[in-house]
Amino acid sequence: MIASFKHAWVAAIGTAAAAAWPFANFFDANFSQLAIGAYGHLRDLAALCAVMVVLPICVAAVAPASVRPSVARALTTATVVIAAVFLSASIRDMGEIGGLSRTGAALFAGVVILGLAVLAWGTAKYEPFRFAVTVLGIVALTLPLSRVGPAWAALSWDTSTSQSTDSPSTVSTSFSGKNLYFLVLDGYGRADTLKDAGYDNSAFVQALEKRGFFVDQKALGNYSSTYVSIMAMLEADYVVDDKSPRYRDRSQFYPTALNNGRVPSVVYQFKASGYQTVRVSNEWGRCDESIFDHCFVEGGQELSYPMRLFLEATVLPQLFPRLATPPPEAIANDAVEIANQRFFEITSKEPFFLFAHELAPHAPFRYGPGCIARTPQPDDESSPKIARPLYLQMLPCVNRNVLHLIDRIVGSDPDGLIILASDHGTDFQVDWHQRLEEWPLAAQIERFSILSASRLPEGCKGYHQPGIGQINLMRIALACLEGQAPNLVHEASFITVYENSTEFGRVVQADVN
Fold it and tell me: What's residue 40's pLDDT?
């Protein structure tokens, strides 16, 4: 009995180590982003880790003596299966190299996992095998831990990534009490660039104008990437330019800076003026901060961003698509749909500043022809040839939802200020791996040509100007609320890229202004 008890515990330790190994790998691989809070809270990931580590130990502890040999076998098998599952993406990739389709390669990886489980169960009746598996599990865990531990310890002595929460020294605290609705549509191109891509958006433009909007047909965005562009809107100022030092991460940008406690200037001004600040978010931005007074995000998505990133090392999202993307019935989980569904709850907090970031028409492409729900696919953005038609068929659905929300706003709050803008334009001609100085003018024009429409009260309609970016658009709205002429900054557009480019962190001024 003593031997069987020992064997069960040895197997349990091996399983716990194997269960902790993928989490340690995840923290090791994503340390730079996790350290700056870029992924927000990790509650579900931490809960899963705790369950996977504690469960085998509990099983060994409560198992009756008569079944401990079988428990040891089962735990050893579980150790092998856990390792195989978190290596399955690599197994799938080898299948693709061997000529299998992506689906076929995923099924091949599933078969390999099943085969290893059967083999492990048969071999786990031998004590040397169980002992060897336990040792391998512990050794595998120590490798990422040996890197993550010192890195976290060093971080505790490094204050360079901390974010300032100091408030601006001079801000307006005399806003009129009118509400501001600032709606951001991700990647929504200007009408002329959409026409070049094969979509006539004149009906939407005319519908906005009919509702009292000034639609800027010459609008140019200030930044080419979302994380910088949205932060600039919330600061109503440039947050980085071509004279800034090269940044190493997103710690000073949206939403990471908010996650770390930084209060953007615009949010501070509204708070100081006695406004409620409301954010309507999405599956990318989430609600992992406490800067805004209220934040709305739909729970329709089943997994958080870090959990989905964690599972990318496996074929589980491919074999079970709901682990990768929201199910089709959860289509109404983006900002405009949330605002429509929870309109009265959101707008009951007057006076307020509402900031909503809608991912559409940018991927994930959740609408098919006729605005029927579709499940986004892994290769939707693999090439402009695939992405363009998916993007274009999203536009009428986005337009419909936006107009519905605008009609509700105007109907209940006719004096409210409504700003409709995109964070950047489309990128069908953009090569994200080019040096920033080598971006062709056509690619720059496409990326910086943004949707920009504003509905201001009668006394502020003279503030409308063509050819301005999101920063000055926000400044115009703030000036209208304050009852003063807008203090506009010089218009400029800056090229910034994402981490998959070797140019990440560099900033180059574009030629479009």
Answer: 67
